[in-house]
Design a protein that fits this description.
about 375 residues; alpha/beta; Rossmann fold; 7-stranded parallel beta sheet; 12 helices; 16 strands; binds nicotinamide-adenine-dinucleotide
């Protein structure tokens, strides 16, 4: 233990030298003393030394859609960093048992409920995951997407403005980019959403811009590429019964829940003819959210912020490569047939993750394909057995 005097000197020294201190002995580095945020950044939150009694003493975060696939992982990560979490979810696709922290069942369209939450909870920042997310459905039922992703989202922003909550991390998507734009895609690649889903996500991004001008809102938009995998301890994962994502569909074949996988087109200009995507592990996505939050919490209160980051790995994998890897990792044959291309399917969609790596220090830890499939398979077998 340090004496009170030494501790006081150390604290003063870390205030003078933000980040931490290097202690030398005979001119050689002997000891590193880091402030807690720098330590969390270096370990990406994977090593949590925060003693139990401090859990929940950090900022209070409202997580909309926190009972869903990505929101539940992010909420759990926040709690591990000492934040307290209020989860708001209408359980339209989410599961109550996935919700972390304090759970409120309710809909973002319910403005009175939002006012009650912001009055009762003293929220420091919002992570906004709640949305309708199926591209194909959005083409057939655009109204549902404008109502949920735009109108209900606007309710959230208005309630935040009224209650003086200034910080928000928003889940957007790589489908906002123009399908003719070449990969790897940086944040300044041309935008041109081609479905109501993607368009409503971009509309919300624009709303964040205008609220920044109007009332100094501070936002980080994370444009995810393909979220995949399940929590490393096997307790959370993707729970959709009729998945549209590739990996859960492959695992349904491995589990015998589905007879054959359809591969949509094998005549693309890629090395094996199938489309190429950038898969990012859901635990890495959760860590990216915490880094984004930390970025906002470290900024001055009055400064408007509108930041956008791609969250991907920069590595592309073709559909056939994923199927082969899934055969290896699960030990099951994955039967597939080749069907026609889907309308609007792009050849190659891979992120340029340089900006998030440089500005937020994001380094994916679990996003290699073997770890993604192993974690998803562990979850899938246990949950859907
Ligand atoms: N899964 C991906 O690969 C991916 C890729 C890019 C972006 N995103 C975005 O990430 C976010 C989370 O996606 P996910 O895959 O976890 O989907 P999900 O369906 O599992 O999660 C969405 C959650 O929001 C809840 N919800 C929906 N509308 C609501 C409302 N009006 N009020 C309260 N709760 C509501 C649902 O019940 C669900 O729990 C979405 O905004 C999505 O657009 C996902």
């Amino acid at each position: 233990m340090f004496s009170r005097k030494v501790l006081k000197e150390l604290l003063e020294a870390t205030t003078r030298h933000p980040g931490g201190l290097l202690v030398l002995e005979e001119n050689k580095p002997k000891l590193v003393i880091l402030d807690y945020l720098s330590y969390q950044k270096m370990t990406m939150g994977k090593l949590n030394l925060l003693p139990q009694q401090f859990a929940g003493t950090g900022p209070k975060i409202l997580v909309t859609g926190g009972a869903g696939y990505i929101g539940s992982h992010a909420a759990r990560h926040l709690i591990a960093q000492g934040c307290s979490v209020v989860t708001l979810d209408n359980l339209s696709t989410g599961k109550k048992e996935f919700a972390q922290g304090k759970f409120i069942k309710g809909d973002l369209a319910d403005r009175e409920l939002l006012d009650e939450i912001f009055t009762a909870e003293k929220i420091d920042a919002v992570m906004h995951f709640a949305a309708s997310i199926e591209v194909e459905e959005s083409v057939h039922d655009p109204g549902k997407y404008y109502r949920n992703n735009v109108f209900a989202g606007l309710n959230l922003l208005e309630a935040m403005a009224k209650h003086g909550v200034k910080r928000i991390v928003f889940s957007s998507t790589c489908t906002v980019y123009d399908e003719r734009a070449a990969s790897p895609l940086a944040e300044d690649a041309p935008l041109n959403p081609t479905s109501p889903y993607a368009e409503t996500k971009l509309v919300f991004e624009h709303m964040l811009f205008w609220y920044a001008q109007a009332c100094a809102l501070q936002s980080v938009t994370l444009r995810y590429f393909n979220a995949a995998g399940a929590s490393m301890d096997g307790s959370l994962g993707y729970a959709g019964e009729n998945p549209t994502h590739l990996i859960p569909n492959i695992l349904n074949v491995a589990l015998g829940k589905k007879e054959v996988l359809t591969v949509f087109g094998n005549d693309f200009q890629t090395h094996d003819g199938t489309t190429i995507r950038d898969f990012v592990h859901v635990e890495d996505l959760a860590a990216a959210h915490y880094l984004a939050l930390d970025y906002l919490l470290s900024a001055r209160d009055t400064k408007p912020i509108v930041e956008v980051f791609n969250v991907g790995t920069g590595q592309g994998h073709s559909v056939l490569e994923i199927i082969n890897e899934a055969c290896d990792r699960t030990g099951h044959m994955i039967r597939f047939e080749v069907g026609p291309r889907r309308a609007g399917d792009r050849e190659r969609v891979v992120a340029d993750p340089s900006k998030i790596s440089k500005v937020l220090g994001f380094v994916p830890k679990y996003s290699d394909i073997a770890t993604i499939i192993d974690s998803a398979w562990r979850w899938h077998k246990a949950y859907f057995k």
